[in-house]
Automatic annotation (TrEMBL):
This is HTH cro/C1-type domain-containing protein. Residues 11-64 form the HTH cro/C1-type domain. SMART domains: AAA, HTH_XRE, TPR. It comes from Amycolatopsis lurida NRRL 2430. The keyword Flavoprotein does not apply. GO terms for molecular function: ADP binding; DNA binding. Residues 72-81 have a biased composition (Basic and acidic residues). TPR repeats lie at residues 679-712. Keywords: TPR repeat. It comes from the Bacteria. Residues 64-93 are annotated as: Disordered.
Amino acid sequence: MNERATFGAELRRRRKAAGLSLTELAARTHYSKGYLSKVETGLSAPNAALAALCETELGAEGELKPLLPGEPARRRTRPDVRPSGLPPATSSFTGRADELRAIRAALEADGGVCVVSGMGGVGKTELAVRCAHRLESGFADGCLFIDLRDESGEPAAVHDRLLRVLGVPADRVPADPADRAALYRSRLRGRSLLLVLDNAVSAAQVRPLLPAEPKCRVLITSRSRLSALDDAVHVSLAMLPLDAAVELFTTVTGVPAGTAVTRVVQRCARLPLAIRIAAARLRAHPAWDVTELDRRLADETTRLGELDDGERSLAAAFRLSVHQLSAAESRLFGLLTVHPGTDVDIHTASALSSLSFRETDRLLDRLHEAHLLTQPEAGRYGFHDLLRAFATEFVSTDAEDGMKAFSRLAAFAVRTAAQADKELTPHRFVPEIDFAPGLPEPARLDDGEMAMAWFRTEWPGLVALCRAARDRGEHERCWQLAFFLRDYFFVAKLWDPWMETHRWARASAAVIGDLWALATTTANLGVAHVDRGDLDEASACYGEALALFRRIGDGHGETTTLAHSGWAEHYRGDHEGALRDLRQAHASYVRGGNRRNAAITERGIALVLTALGQAAEAAALANRTLAVFDELRLDLDAAMALNCLGWAWYNAERHDLAAPAYRAAADRAEACGSRYETARAYVGLGNVAAAEGSAQMAAELWNRADEIHPDLDRVMVGEARARRV
């Protein structure tokens, strides 16, 4: 038995003893099933990398490597030297199992061209080299590795280098580019060769280098997606999974995994190059521990500077990608950092750039193609965290252009938020707001459902923009954004951002001396406090707002604040005081013809009457407000009125009337997206079931309410107070 058969026989024996099929061993080692079968039967020579992997997977440390054969006496198809120009594979490679399988499958398929693309530093070359080392033994004529960044970029120059490696004397390389390409294709005819083209810039650069020989395969890496290579299989690299990122850091440094290591790799955004640089810096400073490294990486404004080990720099890696951009692409890339949110849609990017939708869409697509932007969903684009820091610090943006871009952005956000708010609360009083000509049209928001969907997507960015407007001195836009966010925050019960935006808005209104904006914002901040149950804070806000409205002679604002104050008094338990203020506000709204606010206030009166034991009168009022809300198409207010009606009938012990009111409230609240009012209705239904002796039904309804919106405030929600468990 010769050496090769001995290795194969031992591999087969140990594989079967481990209970593994060839398919399972192939999946674990990332070698093809066909190749492993040939190794076991002695038809293909094993290599050291395969032996090491098989020893690990089969628990046979040191048992297979001694059986490796000597240099195989391969029968050559031609006398040329078999090239093997692969760089060494790193020993600290982690993760990427799915990507390795995808690349191998692509290179084993007909066509055999695979493009591995990703942002700078994501590990494209490491992955390609590792995969090539595992596949190289399956190519009779070896492997060629070409770093296209080292070439002039012209295919003719690459052809020259490849021809020399393939054994063509320098004086036999044609001067004419077309002749070189023809000779290159000719020299590959009949060969079985793996060609690795690293750092490709474009499809046009790569296309002339693709062999016509079907037995050759090509593996390409690029910072661009090279989408124009239609016949290639495209594998896009994302960040490492967190566990693989931690493993990479611990493998390089020898530091055990822990909370500090996890924070470090997260600050490196799970980008392999950043993790390797951070690990190298830790190794270079024996006095440091992981906590010190974490501290140095904590500051986002200096993080890129810390990710430089003297030989490798994350910023330098990113520059290579940016240098490939056109002037228009680079300008938009820089301007996108003006937006403080995590991602933008095409309409917002158009407002930033002052370009048409079509041109903006084209530029965004190009930046995405270059892996400089992410695309979390169709029509939206965002930054990788470290690329945002790089673009902010290193991509040149004209200061005046940036200031104008932010002004356009803030104005566009206010304009769109105003449109969305109008769909949510069509009869709300809105001050007149001016916009400069030339702003792009907002996205279409034809109804309340579309407006809610828009707010759900955009509110985090709008909150960040509100703060940025305050910091940049765009004080009018700051309070206007807060004003138009209020009703969505009320529906969604997002109390923290509601209060944050209104505190910033109050500061901005005070800076510019706009007393109406200051009074309105303060009153709306009071509504947030009431809604969350902070009654003392709410009363303080209402007192301040009331004084401001009286000072400027705004009767409508004074009435609205008085009504809000009445709600707070009711929740505090002063029902008589609440009834007085609410009735005064209601009379003022009726005199002014404000049907919406009059109905909302009357709904409050119904709640107060219920607390005062006048449930039948309260039910009649709630019914009357429901008719107004339906006529005005105020679905959320209608759901609240139905809950109010259910609460009144429950307190009157008319469970036969309370239950249908609560069921209708649940349906209406769910339809308009209010989880809070939906949960309130189910708690009410549970209370009715409990009162009628159906304990199991009550428990199921209360559990359903908890799933929709847990922990309804007992101060604010009567149904929650009445709930028995």
